[in-house]
Write a structure and sequence with these properties.
Immunoglobulin-like; 5 domains; single chain; five-stranded antiparallel sheet; 20 helices; 723 residues
């Protein structure tokens, strides 16, 4: 159409001049048009754009190609003239929402339009819901599982919309997008990368708070139990999905209590009170820096007094129940693989101190417990403060930082070198050396307790998830109490042994075996450091791995140089120390390398599995639920050892994959390796503050099923058979 319009313009110009001029201008115009036509015909990837009187419409793709059998995103992009607008799915008092009718290659299918949150558009006494400027309406396309030998595919769509200022004009366009095929993951299209990123920020997520409504003859009232978030919410708007539910132009009055919000709006023209209300809540959240952040949430809720569909199948625990669960979860945390290297060192320390005085052994236990509690208090305080500041984080948040992962890798590597005898770290930082046995401050036991907490964060033991989810929804003092109960549970086994001297009599006496045992325990530390390097590869890619490996070499060199020049002359000893300090500074400086200092440098690849995992998003989940498909959501992270064990033992099972395929269950992976507010809020909706979390959504209207944090193949199969 654009080419036709250009030709028409040139033909109009040809009618005006004299014959010689006409001939000359036709020659010039013809050459230009031929060049333009040749360029278009030679372009291997084509996007068809249509310009109407008021709108430029085009079909855009998020990627530059179609990957074999993998869903991809396209979007209808509408760019309006100044002062004109198009409409949301519920247009308000007048208007009509855009529609797209697809003509796709055989075997392809298109999902529903994903609607970004709209704006209120007053038109005289009326109120419409829609978009000014430019709007992007994404749609997911599912291609063939096998793209055969075809090099390109063309997607065609008929788009219809109503564009309005004071007058409304119906317009339409026939659009197409041609994309090549490839077997490897398709790269992002740099032309539209920002457009898709912007619209995803405007797509609504499931509401993280309980919502109820009441209605009378005059008003509709929405009640939200938001907890501490109520203090930060500056404005709230309700956009109903159903027409006639409210008076669209009426003011929406927000009132607040300590931990809840109430939105009141005039009732609409519906004669009968609805049994349920579905819609969109647009929330403007106040930030500490004075700026505001806007979120949108979807919800469906029954009338107040009727049982509301809960994200979790059971209500949250009370305070005393949460404390008991935290204590028990902390005890079980000692059995998780994260803590094993440190606890092995502590067991060696027990053997060393078994035949000392009972008072000395008890003091060692108290020092270890103090280290655990102090470190837990520090992490909990930081977590509480960051969440209060509006950060969407949870348990294990520090491992979402590549810099923290790098520093922890350095620490475990250095401690491993110390146990291997490469250097002496004050008689061993972790209390396994003889020098710490006679010290009155017992710093080694304290440091061991602190280190146990640091390395425990990748693991989530049974009962921990419910306790942590409760803690993160309470005030600071209650949250801190739950975290301290968790820390006490972690320290309890060692503390109990230190106060039971009779049990220590069964420990072997110290001897030559102790030194060999100490050296042997260096290897679990090396293994943990290697695993952290793998975690870093998921966060930053190969450049980040190269940086941390270079840092480990520099650390080893610094330690060797310091020891090699220890007995040299003062001049060489000083030179050795300066060289060691320089190498150490370079190693620490590598943590600021761009490849490391970025949590978005790489995307975690999918783990080896028979399952066709899709990336989780609230929009994709809502789309699948709307179609009646059962959905299994795996909330996981590369740094979560419990998650990796569950994947190996249950999720990667061939029998599980077969059962999921038989039941036609769509599997979504919510990868929390890097910080993701959408995943954090989804976890909060289930009363959880960390991973793993496994949720099965049945194909019919029913409560989702939450599976245990420790999965087995038989348990998963049994749950799937209920669908």
């Amino acid at each position: 159409m654009l080419l036709a319009n250009t030709l028409h313009l040139h033909l109009d110009r040809l009618r005006q001049p004299s014959p010689p001029d006409r001939f000359r201008r036709f020659s010039q115009s013809g050459r230009i048009l031929l060049l333009l036509l040749g360029f278009l015909l030679s372009w291997p990837v084509a996007a068809h754009s249509v310009v109407t009187a008021h709108v430029q419409a085009e079909l855009i793709g998020e990627t530059t190609a179609i990957q074999l059998g993998q869903p991809f995103w396209v979007a209808l992009r509408l760019q309006m003239r100044d002062g004109w607008h198009v409409y949301w799915r519920n247009p308000g008092d007048s208007g009509l929402a855009p529609t797209v009718t697809w003509t796709l290659p055989a075997g392809f299918s298109a999902g529903e339009i994903q609607w970004p949150y709209p704006e209120r558009i007053p038109v005289g006494p009326l109120m419409n819901f829609g978009y000014h400027g430019t709007v992007v309406l994404p749609v997911q396309i599912q291609p063939l599982s096998s793209l055969q030998d075809q090099d390109t595919f063309t997607l065609r769509a008929r788009a219809d919309w109503l564009v309005c200022q004071e007058d409304c004009i119906p317009e339409s366009a026939d659009l197409e997008l041609t994309l090549p095929t490839q077997a490897d993951p398709a790269p992002m299209d740099p032309r539209w990368n920002e457009s898709f990123a912007t619209v995803r920020q405007r797509l609504p997520m499931p509401v993280p708070w309980p919502v109820s409504f009441a209605i009378d003859e005059a008003t509709l009232t929405l009640d939200l139990t938001t907890g501490r978030a109520a203090e930060r919410i500056a404005a709230l708007e309700f956009f109903p999905l159903e027409d006639g539910l409210i008076t669209h132009a009426a003011p929406q009055t927000l009132s607040r209590a300590e931990s809840s919000l109430r939105l009141t709006v005039a009732r609409g023209t519906q004669p009968k009170p609805p049994e349920s209300v579905a819609g969109l809540l647009v929330v403007r959240e106040r930030q500490d820096d004075g700026k505001s952040l806007t979120h949108a949430f979807t919800f469906t809720t029954p009338r107040a007094g009727e049982p509301a569909p809960m994200a979790a199948p059971s209500p949250g625990p009370g305070l005393f129940q949460a404390l008991a669960l935290a204590l028990l979860g902390g005890v079980l945390l000692n059995l998780m693989p994260c803590v094993l290297p440190v606890l092995s060192l502590k067991a060696l320390s027990l053997a060393q101190h078994a035949h000392h005085s009972p008072g000395a052994v008890r003091t060692q236990g108290l020092a270890y417990t103090a280290g655990v509690l102090v470190c837990f208090t520090a992490i909990a305080g930081m977590l509480i403060a960051l969440r209060a500041a509006g950060q969407h984080i949870g348990w294990g948040f520090q491992l979402q930082s590549p810099i923290f992962v790098t520093l922890l890798t350095y620490l475990l590597f250095v401690l491993g070198l110390s146990l291997s005898g490469v250097f002496s770290f004050g008689g061993s930082l972790m209390g396994v050396g003889s020098a710490w046995a006679d010290r009155p401050d017992y710093l080694g036991s304290f440091a061991t307790g602190a280190l146990a907490v640091v390395v425990a964060t990748p693991c989530t033991a049974p009962f921990m998830g419910v306790a942590l989810g409760f803690a993160l929804t309470q005030n600071a003092w209650v949250s801190l109490a739950v975290f301290l109960a968790l820390g006490l549970g972690l320290a309890l086994p060692y503390l109990a042994l230190s106060f039971k001297p009779g049990l220590l009599r069964f420990m072997p006496r110290p001897g030559p075996w102790l030194e060999h045992g100490k050296q042997l325990l260096a290897f679990p530390l090396y293994a943990t450091a290697a695993w952290l390097v793998w975690v870093l590869s998921q966060q930053t890619g190969p450049d980040g791995v190269a940086a941390v490996l270079a840092g480990m070499i520099l650390l080893a060199f610094a330690l060797w140089l310091s020891r090699a020049t220890h007995a040299a002359t003062p001049r060489w000893r000083l030179a050795g120390r300066l060289g060691a300090v320089l190498a150490l500074a370079l190693a620490l400086g590598l943590t600021r390398w761009p490849a490391v200092d970025s949590a978005t440098a790489a995307t975690s690849p999918a783990s080896a599995s028979a399952l066709a995992w899709e990336s989780f998003s609230p929009a994709r989940l809502a789309e699948l639920q709307a179609t009646g498909r059962p959905v299994f959501v795996n909330f996981t992270a590369a740094w979560c050892i419990t998650c990796l064990v569950n994947e190996r033992m249950a999720l990667n099972s061939a029998r599980v994959a077969e059962e999921l395929a038989t039941k036609k269950v769509v599997v979504l992976k919510a990868d929390w390796t890097q910080r993701d507010p959408a995943i954090t809020q989804a976890l909060a909706a289930f009363g959880r503050g960390g991973v793993p979390l496994y949720v099965l959504y049945p194909p019919r209207p029913a409560q989702p099923i939450i599976l245990p944090q420790l999965l087995t193949e038989s348990l998963l199969l049994k749950t799937l058979q209920t669908l």
